[in-house]
Structures are given as C-alpha cells and as structure tokens.
Amino acid sequence: MSFFRKLKDRLLKSSSKIEEGLEAIVAEGAAPESQPEPNPTPEPTPVPRPAEPTPAPEPRPVPEPVPEPAPEPAPEIVPGPGEEPAPPPQPPEVPAPGPEPAPEPPQEAPFAPDEMPEPAPYEMPDTGPMEIPGEYMAVSDAPLADRPGFLGRLFRRATPGGAALAEPRRVLDDAMLESLEELLIQADMGVDTALRVAANLAEGRMGRKLSVAEIKGLLAAEIARIMEPVARPLPLYPKKPQVVLVVGVNGSGKTTTIGKLASQFRAAGKKVVIAAGDTFRAAAVEQLQVWGDRAGVPVMTAPEGSDPASLAFDAMTRAQAEGADLLMIDTAGRLQNRQDLMEELAKIVRVIRKKDPDAP
After folding, report:
1. For 229-283, how does the pLDDT look when each residue is reduced to its tens digit (9 = 90+)?
2. Helix axes 282-295, 254-267, angle to 10 degrees
3. CATH code at 204?
C-alpha cells in the first residue's frame, strides 16, 4: 500500500509554485471536513443450532383383556297342566335368490377416420410494440460514468479504509487574504495588480470555505478579466522581416513564449527565424534549439559569453536574405536598475536599426 500512496502523491503533487503556495495557505487554517464514515460491516447472522432429537416415549404395557362372563342359559319354562307347550322360535326366512340380470353388451369404440382434418392456423393478435415499464427503463438508464476508472480505484484503495479523502477547505478571512496577496507578489505580479485581484476575489466571499481548486479558478477568471482589454493578436505587417525583440526579467517565460509563437506562426504558413540572444545562460540556447526543432524553425546561436548585438546583426542579415516574415530575438533577463545590462540592450536596438530604422 505504501507504493500506491507514494505513486498517488507523486502524480497529484503540483509543479507550480503558486499552487504549492495555495495548498500551504489552505492547509494552514483548513477546517477538518467531516469524512463519511465507512459503512459498518454487518454482523453475521447466528446460525441456530440443530435441535436435539426428542427421546421416543417408552411403550406402555398393554393391559390384558378382561374375559367377558359367559351368558347364563335362559331358564326353561315348564308348562303347567292343561297348557300347550310354546313352539320353539323359528329362524327368519331368507328370500330365495332371483334370476341374475343379463350383463349389458360392451359399447363399441367410435370409428376413427383414416384422415384427420388439419387444424386451422392460429393467428396471433396484433397488439403493437410492447412497452417496457418506466421502472425498468430507469434501471437501464443508470450512468456507467459514475463508476471510477482504474486510477480512481487505485487511489481509493491506497487510502485507509478505501474512502476518498475530503478536499481541505479554509474560511476566507483577512489573514488568508493577506497571505494570498503576498503569494501573488512573490510570483512577480505587480503590487497594485495583486491587491486588485485579491480584493475582487474576496468580494462577496468573506467567511466562505474555499478549496485550492476553487481559489485557482477564481484567480484565473480574475486575471483573464484584467488581461482581456489588452489581449490582442500579434499583427504581421507587409514589410519583411518583422523584428520582435523580447525583453523581461529573469524567469518571466521569454524563451518559452518565443518557442510557442514560432510554432503558431509556422503552422500558419509564415517563415520564422529565431536568434538565441541570451548568450549569458547556456540553457536558454539549448531550450530554443529544442523549440526550433519541434516547430521546424531555424535557430541562430552564438558562443556563450559573446556579444548579443553581433548575433542580432547576423540574424537580421539572414532574415532579409531569406525573405523571412518574422524574426524573434531572445535576450537575457535583466532589471532596469542594472545600468550595464540596460546599455547592452540599447546597443542591440542600435545595431538592428542599422538594417531597419523602424525595427524593432
């Protein structure tokens, strides 16, 4: 079971710092949810013991029959003088048997014909299509999607008792709101924007219990609403090549964005060239090469530590010679308080404008 629990934790563990921060914030003051108690196992019904056989009653002795007394002979009546003796009793007369009646002749069996008539065919009544009662239809309409899949059953078995763990929730209060603001600011969101997002998220939801998934959905919806007025597609002008110089702080996603845009424009039939101008970080060059191979876009590189302005000039020359529609130049991450890095960025712009005064 420990293997399945580790597998579940690894699959469900978030790789996003914001999500990890949200999980920590919710878990800090999460109210324990009442988990459904598992159904008690019914006790086995006791099997009644077989009844012991009742001993047969002992036979009672049969009483001996009492002999009946013999009948006394009737006294003989002696006739007196001058009286005739009474005649002895005569036995009753038995009637003579009459003639026996003649037996009736046996009835003859009915004559069976040689050919039996064929029975008429039985026609089934046309009652129309048979309708199935609604109660049986309800059973067949039961959705099978409620049945958990393999991973769902696997994770449910990995939990103690086989029951799904309740998602932790936390009441949205001032302390939680302040933690959300700090998390957004640490994720490189502007202070004003972070305060605005947190305030709009708390509107009408103070005192309610929220889970990590609900907070993520609310944050995504609020950020999308803020970005909607400025969300515009990247236009491509008739002049070729169109130069896009990508700048920003460290870790803001410049290299990944270049790779995604190159893939999108390449799929639209445009010819794209990428220049890996981040010569300070070797991983950025390798990352762009992977993106270029996936999108089928050429990537121009330079040795680590070389001048990015020189690479930008060579990329402009190649893009003009090949008639590319779009040239995207990556740069190293920098902040505006680093004067030397800002001067390096200005040099890249001056070199590009030697080839195209209106670029980038």
Report:
1. 887 777 777 788 889 999 988 888 888 889 889 998 998 888 999 999 888 887 8
2. 20
3. 1.20.120
Give residue 287's pLDDT. 86
- Burial class for 329, CB neighbours closer than 10 Å (0-12, 13-18, 19+): buried
Q: Does residue 335 share a domain with residue 256?
A: yes
Task: Tell me: do 194 and 280 sit in the same domain.
Answer: no
Domain boundaries, position 195? 16-26+167-230
209, β-bridge pairs: 171
Domain count for the chain? 2
**Do residues 256 and 201 both lie within one domain?**
no
pLDDT digits (tens, 9 = 90+) for 168-217: 888 888 888 898 899 888 887 888 999 999 999 888 888 888 888 888 88
Name the DSSP class of 73. P
CB half-sphere exposure, 17, CA atoms < 13 A = 8
Q: Are residues 226 and 247 in the same domain?
A: no
DSSP state, 275?
Answer: E
At position 98, the amino acid (one-letter code) is: G
Q: Are residues 339 and 265 in the same domain?
A: yes
Q: Do the domain assignments include residue 20? A: yes
> In the listed set 230, 254, 271, which residue is the last one of a domain according to the structure?
230
> Over 50: is that where the pLDDT of 11 sits?
no
Contact 241, 319 (CB under 8 A): yes
Q: Which residues 6+ apart lie within 8 Å of 280 measured at CB?
A: 304, 305, 332
- C-alpha closest to that of 310 among 340, 264, 285, 347: 347
